């Protein structure tokens, strides 16, 4: 047995690795490491990128929440001179439309881009600005751009771009809000021009940063709605209805026919608004079932501002009946809506206007024929006595001369000669020498040629004829002091029972119980069961508010048709005719 060398015992297999084995192992190791290295590097980069994206996302969310936490709009103080501090969202991020952004900017990803140039982008970008004025990450439409640069501990130098734009509220048919541009005079730093076009904004916040030499942009969009309701400073309303006729049709449906309808409303609060609705004539038959109910109208106009509409185009509508004329229960002729002699609907500068005192907005029936306005609730049933199937009809050719002078705040207007019409306007101006106090003026008026009620064989134009020479209601607030007035001038004619008529008498002197057709035909109350003359009460202003109303004249007829048995009067066939209703209200607390 051999002695161990140096006292160390060795066994078989303890000879170690050969040089070749070591080299092969090292080679395999290098190959594996080389193969895995991109994965290691990619993982490291992914972690770094995820870290950057997380930081950017946090910045974006932080910016949006900061904007969302601001008051939407704070009314200027009593000074109204524009010296109030910038404290609300619009003051800070949509101050005006006069500070214009550059017409061309070099966006990230384009040769020549420099982070140091981004602060110079700030300003208003109009809807019609050239394409070069905005970057691809910015929204279409008008917006105001603000920019701030800072150094982030994780990202290094960054730029935060905020694009604020006004949005419409959206509708059921078009739920996606659309951009709205403010008026050309919009300025949040002035009491009379700091009224935005809507109570909703779209905010696009973008962070521009550099990642390993590459400029990147990340954006976040959000909508902010005004929730902090401010005070309403001005409210003005105007309503006029020259005629409204209603009854039940033979089948039980509700019939109504109205002409000369005007509804105007203006307000100043968080925003300045003006709304207009004009209807020359409206015909309805309501059964309670949408599939069988009918609705028709002649000339109509509906306008809501903002945006302002400086000039309204008149609308005239002529119905198509064929050569034999109208054969329906409800008939109407050519009608008209629009301003008397130019004008529009404005809200600029917190001063809502609709029409003017010299050019009121009018809704009228201008047709000269016999079917201009006629109401039939008899149809295929049998009419009572000698009544015609057409129980109410516009028979006169023009209104009579008013016995009441037109007040300064409520002139007649150039279109007052229409056969039947309602008209009105509302106006708001700054009180002389004031930047915050607003004066208001409003007027509602109606006129109508003779309306024949219950035509018969012996009274072809009706047992009773009522003419509205003019009815009006006016409201003003000047220097915080309200005032108002009303007027109703109308005449009544009673049939003689032989095709002729008694002389016209002032409507306020007509007494139904005393009125007589003739000995043969009897009293008017045999045909007309209700008469109401409503000239209204003299308005009683309270501080800076006033309401004036003329209810008008209301006539209720006896039943006009028999039931199916041909002998029993159908009590549901009475007709109610209202003529000359007009009202206005105005309040100014600014």
Automatic annotation (TrEMBL):
SUPFAM superfamilies: Pili subunits (SSF54523). The keyword Membrane applies. The keyword Metal-binding does not apply. The chain crosses the membrane at residues 20-41. Keywords: Membrane, Transmembrane, Transmembrane helix. Pfam families: N_methyl (PF07963). NCBIfam families: IV_pilin_GFxxxE. This is Prepilin-type N-terminal cleavage/methylation domain-containing protein.
């Amino acid at each position: 047995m051999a002695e161990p060398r140096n006292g160390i015992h060795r066994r078989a297999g303890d000879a170690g690795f050969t040089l070749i084995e070591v080299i092969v192992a090292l080679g395999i190791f290098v190959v594996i490491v080389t193969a895995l290295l991109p994965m290691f590097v990619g993982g490291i980069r992914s972690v770094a990128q995820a870290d950057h994206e997380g930081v950017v996302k946090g910045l974006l969310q932080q910016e949006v929440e900061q904007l969302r936490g601001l008051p939407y709009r704070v009314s200027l103080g009593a000074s109204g001179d524009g010296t109030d501090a910038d404290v609300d969202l619009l003051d800070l991020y949509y101050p005006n439309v006069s500070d214009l952004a550059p017409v061309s900017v070099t966006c990230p990803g384009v040769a020549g881009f420099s982070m140091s140039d981004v602060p110079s982008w700030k300003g208003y970008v109009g809807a019609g600005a050239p394409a070069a004025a905005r970057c691809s990450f910015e929204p279409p439409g008008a917006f105001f751009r603000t920019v701030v640069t800072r150094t982030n501990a994780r990202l290094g130098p960054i730029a935060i771009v905020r694009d604020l734009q006004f949005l419409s509220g959206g509708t059921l048919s078009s739920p996606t809000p659309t951009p709205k541009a403010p008026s050309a005079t919009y300025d949040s730093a002035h009491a009379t021009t700091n009224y935005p076009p809507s109570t909703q904004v779209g905010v696009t916040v973008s962070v521009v940063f550099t990642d390993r030499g590459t400029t990147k942009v990340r954006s976040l969009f959000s909508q902010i709605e005004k929730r902090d309701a401010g005070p309403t400073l001005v409210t003005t309303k105007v309503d006029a209805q020259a005629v409204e006729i209603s009854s039940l049709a033979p089948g039980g449906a509700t019939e109504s026919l109205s002409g000369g309808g005007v509804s105007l409303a203006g307000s100043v609060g968080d925003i300045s608004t003006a709304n207009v609705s004009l209807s020359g004539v409206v015909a309805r038959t309501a059964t309670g079932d949408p599939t069988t109910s009918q609705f028709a109208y002649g000339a109509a106009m509906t306008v809501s501002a903002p945006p302002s509409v400086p000039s309204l185009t008149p609308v005239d509508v002529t119905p198509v009946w064929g050569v034999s004329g109208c054969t329906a229960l409800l008939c109407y002729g050519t009608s008209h809506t629009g301003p008397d002699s130019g004008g529009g609907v404005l809200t600029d500068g917190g001063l809502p206007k609709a029409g003017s005192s010299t050019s009121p907005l009018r809704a009228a029936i201008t047709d000269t024929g016999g079917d201009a306005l006629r109401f039939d609730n008899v149809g295929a049933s049998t009419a009572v006595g000698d009544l015609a199937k057409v129980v109410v009809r516009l028979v006169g050719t023009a209104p009579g001369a008013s016995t009441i002078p037109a007040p300064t705040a409520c002139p007649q207007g150039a279109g007052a000669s229409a056969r039947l019409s309602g008209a009105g306007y509302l106006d708001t101006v700054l009180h002389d020498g004031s930047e915050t106090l607003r004066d208001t003026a409003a007027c509602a008026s109606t006129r109508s040629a003779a309306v024949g009620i219950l035509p018969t064989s012996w009274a072809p134009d009706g047992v009773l004829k009522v003419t509205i020479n003019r009815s009006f209601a006016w409201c003003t607030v000047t220097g915080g002091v309200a005032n108002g007035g009303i007027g109703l001038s109308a005449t009544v004619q009673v049939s003689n029972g032989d095709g002729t008529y008694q002389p016209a008498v002032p409507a306020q002197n007509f007494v139904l119980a005393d009125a007589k057709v003739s000995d043969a035909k009897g009293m008017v109350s045999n045909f007309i069961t209700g008469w109401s003359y409503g000239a209204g009460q003299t308005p009683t202003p309270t501080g800076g508010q006033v309401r004036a109303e003329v209810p008008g004249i209301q006539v209720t007829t006896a039943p006009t048709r028999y039931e199916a048995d041909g002998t029993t009067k159908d009590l549901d066939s009475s007709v109610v005719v209202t003529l000359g209703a007009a009202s206005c209200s105005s309040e100014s607390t600014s």
